[in-house]
Amino acid sequence: MSFYKPIKKCILICVCLIASSQLAHAQMENDGIMIPQNYLCPGLMYGHSSWTNYWEGTFKRNNGNLGTVSSNEFNFMVTYGLAKNLIVTAGLPYMTTNASAGTLEGQKGLQDISLNIKWKALQLVEGKSKLSLLASVTGSTPISNYQADFEPLSLGSHSKNFTARAVVDYVYGKYFFTGSGAYTSRSDITIDRNSYFTTVLIYSNQVILPNLSNYNFRTGYRSKYFIAEAIADISTSLGGFDITKNNMPFPSNRMNMTSVGANLRYRFKSLYNLELTASDQYVVAGRNSGQSNMIMGGVSYIFSLKADKKVPQVNYYKN
Amino acid sequence: MKNNRKYTQIIALALVILCLAACKKDIVDRTAQYPALAPANEDLNADTWKAVLVTDPTVFTVSAPDATNSPAYVADLNEIKGYQRNLSSEQSAIIKYWSAGAVLRWNEILRDLVAKHNLAPYQNLDGTYPAPSSANPFAYPQFPFSNPPYAARAYAYVSAAQYDALVTAYHFKKLYNRSAPYVNDATVKALIPKSSLPSYPSEDAVVAGASVEMMKLLFPTEISFIEQKAAEEKLYRIMAGANVRGELDAGESLGKQVADVFTARARTDKAGAAIGNQAYWTLLQTQTTAKGEKYWISLESPKRPPMLPLFGKVKPFLFDTTTVVALRPPAPFSTNSPEFKQANDEALYYSQHATRANQAQVAFWADGIGTYTPPGHWNAIAADEFVKQNYSEVRWARNFALLNMAEMDAAIVCWDTKYFYFNPRPTQFNDQIKTLTGIPNFPSYSSGHSNFSAAASTVLTYLLPDRGTKFADLAQKAALSRLYGAIHTRQDIEVGLTTGTEVGQYAVTRGQNDGAGSGN
C-alpha cells in the first residue's frame, strides 16, 4: 500500500499537469536548479523557432520550395518537489508547423508527453564554493498520432525516448558554471509507408532511429531574484544517414546541431512565487538540420502544497 | 529515509519501463523472409512461349557443354565441393538471399537503383537546372534521374529482356539436356530445392547476364555494384550445388546476347530525346493558349522545366504509336469552366480537411522522390504475391514482363495525355490548396498514379484471378490518395484509371496469347 501511494501521486501529476519535451529540456533537465519538497510549480512556455537555411548533409542551402520553416510551441509544464533532493517535471507541448513557400501543408497537434526526474545526489560546500552533482532521467512518448514521416514539417519523430543525464553544477559566490552530458535512446518508429530508402531500400514500415548524445554548458550569474546565463549546446545523432542532394529529409537522418544562446529567469520581490523566463537559442553549426533561431518566453508560479508554508523557499542563489 | 527508499523504487521501476520502451532496435525486412524458390511447375514448354523481341533462339550462340565425364566438368564439380566443405555464415546468407529467385532479386535490385537515383537535379546559381547526361553519367546531376516514366521504362526493359533470355535459355536447356550437378555426382549437396530442369545454361546466370547488360545502359554509374551482385549470384549457384561454373558462363553469355537486342531497341526508342528543349517547352504554352486554355506552370522555385514532355513519343511495347494517340482520353474540363473550378474546390476541401487516415493513405502511395516510383510500388506488390505462387523463373519473368510493359506503355499514354492538354495542377489554379505530399513537376490531367495503378491491377488481376478485387481495390486507393493529397482532381484520377485499365488490357491480351497459360 505504502508503495503505491507515491505512484498515485505521480500519476496524478502526469495526468493533471503537463509540460514540454524540448523546452523542458532546455529549461529544467540540464541546469542545477531544484525546488523544495512539497512545492508545485506549474508553468506555461511559448517558443517560436524558424529557419531558412539548412544543412543537406554538410551542404548548407536554402530551398525555394520551403521558404522559411517555422514552428510554434505551447508548453504546459509542472514541477513538483518530491523529496528534498528529488524533483519531478512533467510536460506536454502543442505545436504548429508551417513552410512559408511551396505547397506542403503545415501540421499541428499535441506532441510528446514527457516526465523528468532530477536528483541532486551530492553537494559539497567549501567557503564560497559549492559543487553539486545531479542525475536526471527523462522519458517521453507521443500523445497523438502525428505523422513522423513528413519532414521537415512533422511535429516530431514520434519515438519513445529515454534520456539519462549527469549534471555538474559549480557555484562560486553568485557566479556559476553548469555542465551536463546526456544519452538518449530512441525507439523504432512506425511510418505510413511499407518501404523506404535510406542508403538501401528497406521493406518495412519500421524505422530505426539513431540514438542521441547531448552536451550542455551554461554559465552566468545567479541571485535570489534572477539567473542570467549564456548557453552552449551540442546535440549529435549517434548514427543515421545524410540527406542526399535535393532529397527529402527522413526521421533517421544524422541530425546534428550546435547552438548558442542566452537565458534569463526572473522573480519579483513583491510576488516571489511568479517567475518569468526569456531565452534565445541560435544554431551555429549543423548537419541535416535547419539553422534555427528559437525564441522562448515563459511564466510559472510556485507554491507550497503544505498549508503552513505560504512563502516559497526557492532561492536560485542558495540552491 | 523511508520515503527516499520508496522514491528510489519508483525511479527504478520508471527506468526499466522507459528503457524497455525506448531500447528496441531491430526491424524485419519482409523481403528477407522470402522462402527459397521451389517451383510447383518447371514450365518445361517455355521454349515455345512467345518472347517479346526474340523470334528465333538459334541466332544466339551457346556452345555445347563439356561432357559430364570430361576433366573440365570434374574440375567444376570439385569447385562446388571445395566451397561446400567450409561454408561461412556470410556465404550461407548469400545462398539464403539468392535462393528466393533470380528474377525476384534482380527486380529488387532495380527498385533499389531507381529509388537511389530518383532525385530531381539541384538548380544552378542562375536559377536554371542542369540535366543529367548519359554521355557523362558521373557529373552532377548523375545520370539518370529515374523519375516515374524513366523508371517505368527501366522496369519494362529489364523484365522483358529477362523473359526473352529465359525463353531462349529453355531452347538450349532442352537441346543440351544436362542434369544438375547434384544429379551427376551424389557427393554434391543441393543446398536449395532440387530442380528437374536441365541445368545448361544456368537460368540464374541468364537472368544475371541480361539484367547486368540492361542496367549498364540504364544505370551507368552503378556498373561496379551491379557486377558485384552478378558475381555474388553466380557464386551462390556454385556454393548451393545448383550449377557448375561452365553452366553459369554459358548462361551469362546468352543473357548478354539477348539483352543486346533490347539495348539496341532502347537506344532508338526516343526516350533519349524525351526531355525536350526550351523551344518545345514554350510551344506547349502557346499551343495551350491558342486553345483558349490556361497552361501548366511549374510550382517549383525556381521554376523547373516540365518532366520529360516528349515521353509520349517513346516507342511502346504492347502497341504502336498510333494506338498511343487513340488511347488519349478526351479533353478535361476547360480551365475556364465552372466544372473545372468545382473539381478543384473538391481538392481544396481535402487539403483543408486532412484526416490522419488520409495522410496515411497519401504517404503510403506517394512514391515521390527518393522512392522506387509508382511502377516500383506495383512491382513490390506483385513480388509479395508472386512469392506465394511458387512460379518457375521463366514464369516470374513473363509475369513481370507483362506487368512492366503495361506500366511503361501506361507512362507513354499518360505522358502523351499530360502534354497534349498541358493542364494546371489544383495548387496552380488556387494557391490556397496545400498538398499532403510533394507536388510533381508535370501537368495534372490525367493522374499518373491512376494510370499506373489501373494498368498494374488489370494485369495482376488477370495473372492472379483468385485474388478477386484485391488489386482493383488497391488501385482505387492509390488513385484516391492523389485527390486526398490535393495533388489531383477527381476527374484526373477517374480518367487516369480508365485509360490505365485500357493499357493493361493490352498486356492481358498478350498474356492470353503467349502460350504460357495461366500457370495457376
Model description:
The complex is a heterodimer of chains A (319) and B (520). Chain A has 319 residues and is mainly beta. Chain A is built from two helices and 20 strands. Chain A has helices at 4-16, 22-29, and strands spanning 39-51, 54-56, 59-61, 69-83, 86-99, 108-110, 112-126, 129-142, 161-172, 175-186, 189-190, 196-197, 201-202, 206-207, 211-222, 226-238, 256-267, 274-287, 293-301, 303-304. In chain A, a hairpin with a 3-residue loop joins strand 15 and strand 16 (226-238). The two termini of chain A are 33 Å apart. Mean pLDDT of chain A is 89; it is low at 1-27. By secondary structure, chain B is mainly α. Chain B has 19 helices and no strands. The longest helix of chain B is centred in the N-terminal third of the chain and has 29 residues, at 148-176.
List descriptors.
heterodimer, A: 319 residues, mainly beta, Porin, two-stranded antiparallel ribbon, 2 helices, 20 strands, 7% helix, B: 520 residues, mainly alpha, 19 helices, 57% helix, globular
